[in-house]
């Protein structure tokens, strides 16, 4: 992840120049002392990220660091990412503790080149944290934080020996929501076996452990999701990003077109190749991409309100619900990739999404979005258009339906409802109608989906 942090550690001198008198009197030693203490900045892990939350510190204060080694796990608006160092040295002072929030570009810790500079770095961290403690945590009220700010440095030392996400120096990997849930349910994460990717602990692991440990009556009295009725819950970083995007979408003039598609042939194909690892999501994404190739305007996007772009790739983003939010992993070049590879890629993306390990290009490169609630028995719904894209399609479940044929006969067919929400500045009703007719033909005769 080092490439995400090209200027991870910047010399203190470059960021916060000292007064002229101090420079003149210490000119001979400025490179011996000041250049050896570097600030660790909150990195920008995505184009929309304005602040980040510290999920866990992989290293503790006083630990020796080697170039390329992971130092901290940061939660952006979309994923959790390990941040690496470009320098050798010692983690001298942690300025933003686990759970704290800091703006992009602000200092979250100090790195000393040698052990001799650690004391000086701690003193610098204490003095620099006094003027503005508020930006580091959106969950703390300003009046409570403003007065005792100098005392914030004290817990840094005591907490460094054993952070909540580590045990004896060994890191326990868990999603932020799983950690919160463990705290609410009084579950010790060290005793929980993770079922996520690479053994990561997710919320269902905590819930299962709590249910197994507690007596039946007690388990029934605890809300399944660790929810305390009446409590006020601040938005997570991801929820802030979702809220911002939804508000931005209100400025786009949209319209909706619905269509009924018979799915008997698609259902038969899915049943035939499901054992080979093919997913229905991959089939729908493939069918959508092939239809978009014939109607590129539906795959276009408008960002500035004055022009739009015909996207050169047909990348299908698919909405996935995860702990505390929503994300849209992207199946890139879905029109070109075979259905078996596409299905394997989709399963990989879902696992990474639920572990909050998606890379930016895996969730922000979509050109058309699918939202499927059919697996929940939903027959129809409308979806909100993601900013910067031309259209999103809401897919309902396939249901047995009594239909009349052209010759007047009555029969049963499996049918699903799809509703497309589109940007009316770029896409018009006729465009969507033609696209949906093409999509219906592909789904009702799906031979091209397995080429």
Can you walk through the features of this model?
With 451 residues, the protein is an alpha+beta fold. It is 30% helix and 22% strand. It has 14 helices and 20 strands. It has helices spanning 12-15, 20-25, 30-33, 118-129, 142-146, 153-159, 176-184, 203-213, 216-221, 237-249, 264-273, 280-294, 339-354, 429-444, and strands spanning 9-11, 37-41, 51-57, 64-65, 70-75, 80-84, 89-94, 101-103, 107-112, 166-167, 170-171, 254-262, 316-318, 320-322, 325-327, 330-331, 368-372, 391-395, 399-404, 410-423. The strands form 5 sheets. Strands 12, 13, 16, 17, 18, 19 and 20 form a 7-stranded mixed sheet that branches. The protein has a 5-stranded antiparallel sheet with strand order 1-2-9-7-4. β14 (320-322) and β15 (325-327) form a beta hairpin. Mean pLDDT is 78; it is low at 1-35, 130-169 and 216-220.
Structural features:
451 residues; alpha+beta; seven-stranded mixed sheet; five-stranded antiparallel sheet; 20 strands; elongated; disordered N terminus
């Amino acid at each position: 992840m080092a490439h995400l942090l090209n200027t991870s550690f910047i010399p203190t001198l470059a960021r916060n120049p000292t007064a002229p008198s101090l420079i003149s009197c210490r000119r001979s030693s400025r490179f011996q002392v000041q250049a050896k203490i570097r600030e660790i900045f909150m990195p920008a892990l995505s184009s929309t990220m304005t602040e980040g939350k510290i999920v866990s510190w992989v290293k503790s204060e006083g630990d020796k660091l080697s170039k390329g080694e992971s130092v901290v796990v940061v939660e952006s608006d979309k994923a959790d990412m390990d941040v690496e160092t470009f320098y050798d040295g010692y983690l001298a002072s942690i300025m933003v503790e686990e759970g704290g929030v800091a703006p992009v570009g602000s200092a979250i810790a100090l790195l000393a080149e040698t052990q001799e500079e650690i004391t000086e770095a701690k003193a610098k961290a204490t003095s620099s944290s006094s003027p503005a403690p508020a930006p580091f945590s959106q969950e703390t009220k300003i009046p409570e934080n403003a007065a005792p700010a100098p005392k914030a440095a004290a817990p840094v030392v005591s907490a460094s020996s054993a952070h909540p996400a580590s045990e004896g120096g060994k890191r326990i990997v868990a999603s932020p929501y799983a950690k919160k849930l463990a705290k609410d349910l009084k579950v010790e994460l060290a005793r929980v076996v993770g079922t996520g990717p690479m053994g990561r602990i997710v919320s269902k692991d905590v819930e299962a452990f709590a249910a197994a440990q507690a007596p039946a009556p007690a388990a029934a009295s605890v809300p399944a999701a660790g929810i305390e009725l009446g409590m006020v819950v601040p938005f997570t970083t991801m929820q802030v990003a979702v809220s911002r995007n939804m508000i931005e979408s209100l400025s786009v003039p949209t319209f909706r077109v619905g269509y009924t598609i018979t799915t008997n042939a698609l259902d038969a194909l899915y049943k035939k190749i499901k054992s080979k690892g093919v997913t229905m999501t991959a089939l729908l994404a493939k069918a959508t991409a092939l239809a978009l190739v014939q109607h590129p305007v539906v795959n276009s996007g408008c960002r500035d309100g004055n022009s739009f772009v015909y996207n050169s790739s047909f990348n299908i983003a698919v909405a996935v619900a995860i702990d505390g939010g929503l994300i849209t992993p992207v199946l890139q070049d879905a029109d070109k990739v075979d259905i078996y590879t596409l299905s394997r890629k989709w399963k990989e993306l879902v696992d990474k999404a639920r572990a909050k390990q998606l890379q930016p290009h895996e969730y922000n490169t979509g050109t058309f979005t699918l939202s499927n609630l059919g697996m929940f028995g939903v027959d129809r719904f409308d979806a909100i258009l993601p900013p910067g894209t031309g259209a999103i399609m809401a897919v309902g479940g396939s249901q047995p339906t009594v239909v009349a044929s052209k010759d007047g006969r009555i029969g049963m067919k499996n049918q699903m409802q799809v509703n497309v929400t589109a940007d009316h500045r770029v896409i018009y009703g006729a465009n969507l109608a033609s696209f949906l007719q093409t999509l219906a033909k592909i789904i009702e005769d799906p031979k091209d989906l397995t080429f």
